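To whoever picks this up:

The nightly regression suite flagged Transcription regulator as changed. Nothing in the input moved, so I suspect the structure step. Input below, exactly as stored in the fixture:
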Amino acid sequence: MNNSKVPKVISSKALSYFAKLAENLNYTKTARMLGITQPALTQQIKKIERNLGTPLFYSVGKQIHLTDAGNILLKSVNEIYASMIDTIDNIQQSTSSTTGTIRLGILSSIENSVLEDFIIQYHNIQPEIIIETVLLNRRQLWDELENNHIDIALMYLPDDSIRNWRPYRTKRIINEDLILLHNNPKLAEQTTVTLKEATERPWVIYPDNYYLTEFLREQFKNNLIDFPEYMGRFASPYLILKFAQAQQLYTALPQSFIMANQPIVHSQQAHFSPDLSFDLSFVYRKEKDHIPRISTFFQEWDHYLDLKSYTDRLQDAVSF
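Regenerated output under the current build:
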């Protein structure tokens, strides 16, 4: 046998690294997103290039670009991923509506008490279906959706970081406002505040790349106002609230979180003028709602909110 004609194997891990680098065109950013070192990423890319016998990227200054070979490989990798996802979905669509697993990814900054209560009730209705939940940041959610590691994401929209919406569908739950929390006597009588007024004191916010931080940055930028100084960045809304109240700082949290946690919210509350709002939505890949157990999940969710609205259930969480 002529060994030179035997195809060389490229690992799925290396291909996934290549696809992510092709998306970002930045080694440092990609390595950070993948949780590996930059040399480790470079090594994987070099291994593919050696196997193929051609470079996949070229540099112009500090910016990298895909070569023709890189574009061909990226197209093939995307086709392979799409084929695998379609195969998995087709298999799942042939399964029962009363058995199996539903994997839910939840944006970590979301108030999820209503969903938690629903999951408990859903188990009573469909005891043979296993619900798995995981808390993720925005970028992790999209990665898990893209790679079919979760069935449904609970997140905020719109999200301009996603360039290709064609594979996805959305199911809106509520539209909610972002609320400024403060202890400024000057604003005590105001029910609304402008973005300019909201810069008078330092803030505490979510970390960079979290949806609400990026959402706020975009609002300040669009209104030609400098983003406010901040004294802390935390992933937990409870720590954000506690820190802001203890240190007399400004912060902004979704109205749903405030409604569900009224006993611990001692700060003054004000809407922004103009309103800053976004949609809380389920996001999932097309055809997922054709899988019997996921279709049933959505039907039971709709029935759950028909009996009592999402807002009313948030208020119930206070007494609980």
